[in-house]
């Protein structure tokens, strides 16, 4: 287990390079002091590939990461029970997806950051 100067920890695969004495790569778990936790794949010291991140407020994201951002297919869940299944680009809902509200109602459409074109609910 590696402990960073601020108290955050990392347990998993890493490598040493000419430029970095410690670079996360492969599979590992990072735990921040504020309660954030990421478990999944790393590349060049960044979240990259499949993984799950949990935030201190109870929200979670499980899916694909590219360069520390939600990118590709994933599921973002809020503490109130709502969740979104679909495509993300640059940490934002962008593309086809389904949003499920706290009552389990499904809303399907093409999401574009804060809007959803052609949003329809499913019975």
Automatic annotation (TrEMBL):
Presence of keyword Signal: no
Alphabetical UniProt keywords: Repeat
Keyword Repeat: yes
Top-level taxon: Eukaryota
Regions that span the bilayer: none
InterPro entries: MORN, MORN_repeat_protein
Protein's recorded name: MORN repeat-containing protein 5
Biological source species: Helobdella robusta (Californian leech)
Gene that produces this protein: 20215937
